Structure formats: C-alpha cells, structure tokens
Amino acid sequence: xxxxxxxxxxxxxxxxxxxxxxxxxxxxxxxxxxxxxxxxxxxxxxxxxxxxxxxxxxxxxxxxxxxxxxxxxxxxxxxxxxxxxxxxxxxxxxxxxxxxxxxxxxxxxxxxxxxxxxxxxxxxxxxxxxxxxxxxxxxxxxxxxxxxxxxxxxxxxxxxxxxxxxxxxxxxxxxxxxxxxxxxxxxxxxxxxxxxxxxxxxxxxxxxxxxxxxxxxxxxxxxxxxxxxxxxxxxxxxxxxxxxxxxxxxxxxxxxxxxxxxxxxxxxxxxxxxxxxxxxxxxxxxxxxxxxxxxxxxxxxxxxxxxxxxxxxxxxxxxxxxxxxxxxxxxxxxxxxxxxxxxxxxxxxxxxxxxxxxxxxxxxxxxxxxxxxxxxxxxxxxxxxxxxxxxxxxxxxxxxxxxxxxxxxxxxxxxxxxxxxxxxxxxxxxxxxxxxxxxxxxxxxxxxxxxx
Length: 452
Hints:
The protein has helices at about 1-5, 15-30, 40-45, 50-55, 65-75, 140-145, 145-150, 165-175, 190, 195-205, 255-260, 260-265, 330-335, 340-355, 365-390, 425-430, 445-450; strands at about 85-95, 105, 110-125, 130-135, 185, 210, 215-220, 225, 245, 250-255, 270-275, 280-295, 300-310, 315-320, 400, 405, 410. The chain is about 35% helix and about 25% strand. A hairpin with a 2-residue loop joins strand 12 and strand 13 (about 300-310).
C-alpha cells in the first residue's frame, strides 16, 4: 500500500536516488522509533545519515509539486459536502538560534513564551477524515529585518514578515487553485479578530464560521445611512457618501451586546450536546442573531453572531461570526465552530507519531521539505485508517446550508439529531429574508422539534 501510494509522487524527482530517499524518510516517520530525527531514521533503514540530510538540503526535487500532488489527491479522493478547512499555527521548541525563524515567542506546544519555531497550517476535515494540506514558516520581524541572517538560513530574499492571517490566506488560495473545495473554513480568534481577513474570504465567496474575541465590534441592528447631501454647503470640507446618519449608534463589542442588547436578551438559549469525553458529555448553550460588521466605517451585509457558553462553566463564553446564508441551522454553525479539534489532533498525531517537531535543520528549504514530507506521511495514515475502519466519505449526519444532509456531531440537547430531519423539511423551515425579520434568530430547538 505504501509503495503504491508513494509512486504518485515519482514525478517530483528527476532521478531514482531521491525517490528511494523519499521511501526511506516516510518509512522512518511511520516507524516506532522514539526519536524521529534524521540520524535514527537513517540508521533504522540502513543508510548513512548524510544521505537523508542531503535529501532535505541538496538533492534536486520539487517540494512545491509534491504539495500540489498531495492536494490533488485530497481534492479527487476525499470530496465531501461538508468539508471544512481550519487555519491554525503550532510551535516547535528549539535550542540555539540557527533554525530558520527561531526566537522567543508564544509556543502553544509548551503553553508559554519559549524559544521556538512557529509554523502556520491549513487542515482539511471531511467527516472522519482529516489531514494537513499546507504549511508555511512564520517569519518574525527580528528575522525579516536581518537579511544577512535570512541569507545564512537560506530564506528567500522576497520572504518578509507577514501576519499569520496573510499566510493562512495564501495557503487557502493555493489549495483552492489545486481543486480543493471547502464548504466552510474556520479558525480561532487569532484569525477571526482581523476584519480584513474575514472580508477577503467574503469577497472570494468562501463561507466561514470564525471564532472572534469579545472585543470584536459590530451592530445587531443595521444603522441607517445617508446617501447624499440634503443641504448643500459651500463651506467646509466635502463629505463622503454614503455615511452613517447623525446620532447613529456606534459599533459595540460583542461582549457588551451579550450583556446589554435587548435583541440578544430576547433570544432564548438552546442546549447542544457538543461531544463526549472521559468525564462525560460536554453541553453548551448557544444563540445566534443577525450581525453587521464594520467595513470602511459602514455596516456590511448581514452576518451571524453566534454566542456559546459552557453549561458547566457559564463564565466560559465563545463568540463566532459567520457569513452563512439565511436559513443555515444553528447546529451546522456550531459544528463548524467547534471543529478545531481536528487540526489540534493532526498536530498531536504528527508530533507524537511522525516526529513533526523533531527536525534539526538550519536551512529554510530543508524545513519546508520536512513539513511537506510529514504531510505526505500523515495523509497515508489517514487513508489507511479510513480503509481499515471500512469508512468512506459520505453524507450522514447534519443538514448543510442548502438543506442537504452532512456529517456532524452537534446534537440538540433533547436528543434530536439534525441529520435525522428530512432535507425537504429543512428547506421549508429555512429563514427566508423576504418573509422574516432580519433580526430573527436561526432555527431554534422548538422549530427543530416541529420538523422532526
């Protein structure tokens, strides 16, 4: 199975030798070695360590084409009507100062500010299947400003410091260009807090459910606009139109809206069974309302503000914003919003099973090659898992935004699973902007019971 799988990447190499090194590297990552850096992996397959070192740093092969091939495989063999792309970053603790991008910064792996390398990733999730699609190094400003240091580490001259959301957007664009279709994308508040990131996804027609911080601002009631000057004046500076009418309410933080907005207060909390753990079921309450973001000082079209709080710990509150169309069930939005565990599981598996953080390189190209090789190894594991569990991608669970049935684990707390609702009935109960108030919440539990 492994030989057949790896033959799909043969055209990334111009010679037989690096093709053999690919199999040795992946075999080393799939082995039961405790430490999966180059030296123990080379010893395990009977090669001099220099061979695998040169494979990463000196051999001529196209790692970008390998990434594209991996994405083509996912696009062709793992399509799903509720596919989700998740943006996230992870830290790799390192000693010394030679590894590309290393510096003291927040490291999620250790839970503190540490000497580490941070990489940004795009995950693909489809029902029981998940994998890593793409990765990129986050280059700190201290590195970007020191071009001599970058040159010594082989970092391209045109590579500069960029915020993580810009890197994430590039990863998404590459995957889409390679045929990967995301029904939804999501990410934590580190990405959701940037309105420009949301607007770029909006403009590209990508649906999202993004976690946002409690200081994110917007309106629950769309403020009125003044579109032209009613009393022309030759005095003063010419005003731009459209503009907010005088005495229009200012955009408020979502925390303040939850505490003080009568619109949100009138919407009842609904309980949802999110998942099961060793300590028992995890149940959250949630509600949703129309929400207008602020773009260039003006309100956008209607989005959704989703507020969820932990039943066991009401002080734990999460806020999400989504550009989902009217009528999208709240269960679906929560399913996407709480799907970040997939990328976290990918990080856990690649680090514990494949030695993802065990790289010992001082060259940018070697680092990028290690990350794509790790993604190739992980995709093989994900495919074998599906095969051995006799699973397949399919529609089995939750309604999508168009009324179809897609997979998901969020259940209404009374036991009603959204996926049991006939698709035709869901369409009948969707919110129609022409007949319902734009401030009406998404379908609530009582509506779901009626449908069932």
